[in-house]
Amino acid sequence: MGIPAYRPPEDPGLWDVYLEWLERALKVGQVHPTTLEYLAHPKRLVTVSLPVVMDDGKVRFFQGFRVVHDIARGPAKGGVRYHPQVTLGQTAGLAAWMTLKAAVWDLPFGGAAGGVAVDPKALSGRELERLTRRYTAELIGLIGPDVDILGPDLGTDQQVMAWIMDTYSMTVGSTVPGVVTGKPHALGGSEGRDEAAGLGVALVLKEVAERRGLPLRGARVALQGFGQVGAGFARKAEALGLRVVAVSTRRGAMYREEGLPVEELLAHYEATGELPHYDLAPEELFALPVDYLVLAAQEGALDGEGARGVRARAVLEAANFGLTLEAEAHLLGRGVVVVPDLLTGGGGLLASYLEWVQDLNMFFWTREEVESHFARKVASTVAEVLSEAEGGGLDLRMAALGLALRRLDEATRLRGVYP
Q: By the 8 A CB rule, do 325 and 307 touch?
């Protein structure tokens, strides 16, 4: 790695992956050395120890993190993740990726991320609330609607966001809905927020297909991951005329050549947490003869070995870092279209922006108005990235990275260095 950069004291995780992509992107998007230094060093890294009184009366300690990567283009924005494998290196990588994603989508945010190393399913509701409120309390003074805006990520949901908002509001003495996004509608959440990430993936697929001459109506889709993003995508994909022929979870994959009944499948999964039956092992989904493979699960889901079996014409990352570097290189070498998470995964960020704007103004749009704003922004962002790719002979990730770096470089240059 040639960039002199910050190194986490523990598992570098996604931070090193980010640095590798940053170095590659410098070949297509030259930036001033000062901008590069900013991008290679997070603005703020916070590690907190969280004592929580458990239901049995004992005190248990959890480790939490919050990283602000860059604020050249606006206040920091990023999710809060509850998962046993949360680390500082992973959090820093996610924060940096959010900086780039916001720049690709030309939204006035910098990048941030946070989380707690915990299995939320192992806690009771009251324990989860106490943990969330303690995590928020440790960050008072570092978060806020014009400083650092939190949102849901893996293991967190609307209720967690409500607790964060309430804790922050009670501490500062006034109700501040804009400190978080992805909260319940009754507390200032936006219409359509829950479906936004999946909707964004589907709309990006539609725009890419139309501009690249790929099939749409009747095209076959294999979907890895059936959580909130995957479910939202499946619904919208079916509405667009796509055929979802396979869906997988950690346990296995369900496959039907003529297409799956999406609504029935979703109802069963929401009721039981399982698919009706399993026809394939999870990894077998990658090699199905489909037009589109959508990765909506976890980081590094498709590695170099798995990529060798891919038969799809296009692979879409609906989860951050869904492809390893080796997998992406292999797919591109075979002529497979790779739509990166920086583009495909922007739906949640865009919805967060729309919610934040409404909260700041205390003026809320109808679902139709939100969806109209959403669709226009998706179309314009995809057009910009594809034009960048076609004009420079680049793959879509390099095009997105080049666009992001130019915008970040301009903002950093205009702001200068204080003092």
A: no
Smallest Cα–Cα separation from 46: which of 102, 8, 101? 8
Per-residue pLDDT tens digits for 110-160 = 999 999 999 999 999 999 999 999 999 999 999 999 999 999 999 999 999
> Among all chains, which residue has been given the structure tokens 């009754």?
186
**Residue among 96, 77, 69, 127 at smallest CA distance from 13:** 96
Token pair listed for 135: 């995590």
Residue 55 per-residue DSSP state: T
Helices (H), 140-273: 158-172, 196-212, 228-239, 262-272
Give dist(CA 231, CA 236) in Å, integer: 9
CA distance 46 to 64: 8
Counting DSSP H helices and E strands in the chain, the numbers are 14, 11
Model pTM score? 0.95
Dist CA 205 CA 207 (whole Å): 6
The count of other CB atoms within 10 Å of the CB of residue 131 is: 25
Buried residues in 152-179 as b, exposed as e (16+ CB within 10 A): bbbbbbbebbbbbbbbbeeeeeeebbbb
196, exposed or middle or buried, with CB in 10 Å at 0-12, 13-18, 19+? buried
- CB 99 within 8 Å of CB 70: yes
Q: Are 128 and 57 in contact (CB under 8 A)?
A: no
**What's 288's DSSP letter?**
S
